[in-house]
From TrEMBL, chain B:
This protein's UniProt keywords: Heme, Iron, Metal-binding, Monooxygenase, Oxidoreductase
Keyword Secreted: no
Upper classification of the organism: Bacteria, Bacillati, Actinomycetota, Actinomycetes, Kitasatosporales
Name the UniProt record assigns to this protein: Cytochrome P450
InterPro entries the record matches: Cyt_P450, Cyt_P450_B, Cyt_P450_CS, Cyt_P450_sf
Region (Disordered): 1-20
Keyword Metal-binding on entry: yes
């Protein structure tokens, strides 16, 4: 089991500027509040096939509201 | 510290530099990108500021709250004479020229209306509008100017749709919004156009206060103005920002994107093979053309280390979005327009808390404009030699004066 890569995602809704890049890039992992647009984390430990899109979300986030940690 | 001689020193070249190719950023930007994290450049008024040209550098500065977007801040770069006007009348500034918390307080009032899903909901109306306009264009005389025929009216009709504004005022709105971003006008002419627009918007807001409907202005009036969260004096520049930002930018990007699509057979072939490629193509065209040609301005409010350079408090910084979008560290073979490239890291919409609020709407408009032209004018081609095309260098969003095509 230990050789399966793990990724843990955390969000900072206070930093979120509601642009929705994450929800558009990895809709399996992120959603947006329908009124405020604030990020909603759907899956904090997504399966390996979603690791690359999740990392891209952290990079695309204009307000650095997404943190991705390996393991 | 910006009281330097108006003559550019060798170490601080004049910015912006002239283009060599009309669809590529000025070549010296690539040289600067290979050097230090920031370099000194001289602006039109003789002041010297820092210029950042790398993807990493632009991202770092735009994401760093120690850099202010307030034009009256010490050292803030005056990219044009018009920026001086904004500085002279700061009370009329919109939230694009504010820092948090004021910026977020105002911007968040608009978030709901510009969510991706709201833009998506507008897609059928945009498509219908385009079909209606193109049906007329294709039965008329050839060549057709796609700038005057589509690139200008489509964004304008979409904004008036959002505002619930009457079609009768569209020409007024279009012409005054265009003056605000055109360096060909004097600061006085720009101020006059701005005052006229503000007067119109004030009337519109007061109209909706008395008789609200189902549109963006009415929602702001009902949710924000009436409960006392937003004053009319704050709302007018906010609405002006939406008008100006929604007009010229989409027009420029639509025109340049169409130019690429009709002159690069590789792009249309790729789309014919896979029509689902359009969103990716739109991102790549945004990256490639980077219409906010002179970049974004900020000023440091404290000393900031940017890799191998220290930017001191009170010094100005210009972020070249077009140079960052051609950074080979992120986009291999950056000067090539590649329909299969994943260009999502581009900064055509900026980065940080000021990243373009209307970006999803812009994407919907661009996708629909490009697709509609390919649908209605199969085999569209330039009706004049490429060398005769008129590029607008003097506007803050770079674009075409006209795009005559035949098919």
């Amino acid at each position: 089991m230990s050789d399966i890569p793990r990724l843990t995602i955390s969000i900072d809704p206070a930093a979120c500027c509601a642009m929705g890049r994450c929800a558009a890039t990895a809709p399996e992992v992120f959603d947006q509040d329908p009124d405020t647009g604030t990020v909603v984390l759907l899956d904090a430990t997504p399966p390996p096939e979603l690791h690359a899109p999740a990392r891209l979300c952290a990079e695309l986030c204009p307000c650095e509201a997404i943190t991705v940690t390996e393991g | 510290m910006n009281e330097t001689a108006p003559l550019a020193e060798e170490s601080a070249p004049v910015y912006p530099m002239p283009r060599v190719s009309p669809v590529d950023p000025p070549p010296p930007l690539a040289e600067l990108r290979a050097g230090k994290a920031a370099s000194r450049v001289t602006l039109w008024d003789g002041s010297q500021v820092w210029l950042v040209t790398s993807h990493a550098g632009v991202k770092a500065v735009l994401g760093d709250r120690r850099f202010t977007a307030v034009t009256s801040a010490p050292g803030f770069p005056m990219l044009t004479r018009i920026s001086q006007l904004v500085r002279a009348k700061p009370a009329s500034a919109s939230f694009i020229r504010m820092d948090d918390p004021e910026h977020s307080r105002l911007r968040s009032m608009l978030t709901r209306d510009f969510l991706a899903r709201r833009a998506e909901a507008l897609r059928p109306a945009v498509r219908e509008l385009l079909d209606e306009m193109l049906a007329k264009l294709v039965t008329g005389e050839r060549p057709v100017d796609l700038v005057a025929g589509l690139a200008i009216p489509v964004p304008s009709r979409v904004i008036t749709l959002l505002f619930g504004a009457g079609d009768d005022r569209r020409e007024f709105i279009e012409s005054r919004s265009a003056i605000l971003v055109d360096r060909g006008y004097t600061p006085d002419q720009v101020a006059a156009a701005r005052d006229e627009l503000d007067g119109y918007l004030r009337e519109l807001v007061e109209e909706r206060l008395a008789d609200p409907g189902d549109d963006l202005i009415s929602r702001l009036v009902l949710d924000q103005v009436r409960p006392g969260k937003l004053s009319i004096d704050e709302m007018v520049p906010m609405c002006r920002l939406l008008l100006v930002a929604g007009h010229g930018t989409t027009t420029s990007q639509a025109g340049l994107g169409l130019l690429s699509l009709i002159t690069d057979p590789g792009l249309t072939e790729a789309l014919a093979e896979d029509p689902g490629l359009m969103p990716k193509m739109v991102e790549e065209l945004l990256r490639f053309h980077s219409i906010v040609q002179n970049g974004l301005a900020r000023a440091a409010t404290e000393d900031v280390e940017l890799d191998d350079v220290v930017i001191r408090a009170g010094e100005g910084v210009v972020l070249s979005l077009s140079a960052a979008n051609r950074d080979e560290q992120i986009f291999p073979d950056p000067d090539r327009l590649d329909p299969h490239r994943d260009a999502r890291r581009h900064f055509a919409f900026g980065h940080g808390m000021h990243q373009c609020l209307g970006q999803w709407l812009a994407r919907v408009e661009l996708e629909e404009i490009y697709a509609a032209v390919l649908r209605w004018m199969p085999g569209a081609r330039l009706a004049i030699p490429f060398e005769e095309l008129e590029f607008r260098h003097e506007v803050s969003s770079y674009g075409l004066g006209s795009l005559p095509v035949t098919w």
